Amino acid sequence: MLQKSYSIHPLSEGAWSIEMDSVRVFLVAGETSALLIDTGTGGVDLRSAVRECTALPIRAVNTHSHFDHISGNSAFEMIFSHPMEISSLAKAGFKAHPVNDGSGFDLGGRILQVIGVPGHSPGNIALWDAAEGLLFTGDTVLVDQPVLLCLDGASLEAYIRSLSKIIALENDEHGGSLRRIFCSHGEMEANVGTVQRLKKCAEAVDLGKLAAEPVPNNLREFATETTALFGLEGASLLVKMRNAVPEKMVAMKPVNI
Q1: What span, in angstroms and rounded, lies between the C-alpha atoms of 8 and 10?
Q2: pLDDT of residue 252
Q3: Are 94 and 81 in contact (CB under 8 A)?
Q4: Percent of the chain residues topping a pLDDT of 70
Q5: Which phi and psi angles does 212 have, rounded to 5°?
Q6: Which CA distances in Å does 180 have to 75, 124, 173, 237?
Q7: Predicted pLDDT of residue 243
Q8: Which of the ends of the chain has fewer CB neighbours closer than 10 A, N or C?
Q9: In DSSP terms, which residues pair with 182 in a beta bridge?
Q10: Are the CB atoms for 119 and 243 separated by under 8 Å?
Q11: Can you give the pLDDT at residue 174?
């Protein structure tokens, strides 16, 4: 039964956030179709929320396979995810089509490029609207709460590389300029300074230059004896120490879907 409420907030021309509980999803529309970025925790009539914004055909993409980003998948016929997340989606009962780093969703006059940003999870992706300077990062960038690098498949080393990729979008090789960064939890918008602080914090942890802080009660469900909280200049990370680097992101020739 669908009981939870939602609220819709316009972001810019043809882009909206849909807020539910402790997570938000994003909708971006072109001239011929629209893309829903993540589907949230479930229990929400997300299809109705989408239809309040656009009547265009809808595809959905999961930035990664954690439950709070995929639980509304069943309301949509076409789901996409990075290949390294597809097995987890299948275990949750969802079928997804693979989409790789460098591919793009052609919405008609508007393309959202897939950017591989592993770290929080092995197949984490962000969606990049170069023409408008918009980046949708899932859980890779958070402003007012720790980024979790302690769940299965997380990697501090991969996360540092991913943040470097995001920073490079400030003036990307195709002429895009990063203007707005959207987060799935907490404060909705970050900026390049936020990303730089997260990278500085992650690099300090990697070099062993930061002392661990007490894990707050609201994060203890994610903590184990090998998990530690680190903070630096307002950025914070909950890290599973000695975590392995996930296998290299699958790279394919960019295509439009």
Answers
A1: 7
A2: 38
A3: no
A4: 91
A5: -70, 150
A6: 28, 19, 18, 22
A7: 41
A8: N
A9: 136, 189
A10: no
A11: 61
Tokens of 176: 């895009």
Average pLDDT of the residues in 46-50: 96
- Residue 217 tokens, joined: 């009660």
Query: What residues are paired with 17 via a beta bridge?
Result: 9, 26
Longest dimension (CA), the chain: 52
Q: Which two tokens stand for residue 81?
A: 């995810």
Residue type, 115: I
Residue 248's pLDDT band (cuts 50, 70, 90): very low
The pLDDT of 159-185, averaged and rounded, is 89
Sign (positive/negative) of CA torsion 125, 130, 131, 134? positive
Q: Quote the tokens at residue 156.
A: 């501090």
- β-strand pairing of 189-190 with 180-182: antiparallel
Q: How many CB atoms sit inside 10 A of residue 74's CB?
A: 13
- Residues 99-158: pLDDT tens digits? 999 999 999 999 999 999 999 999 999 999 999 999 999 999 999 999 999 999 999 999
| pLDDT above 90 for 81 | yes
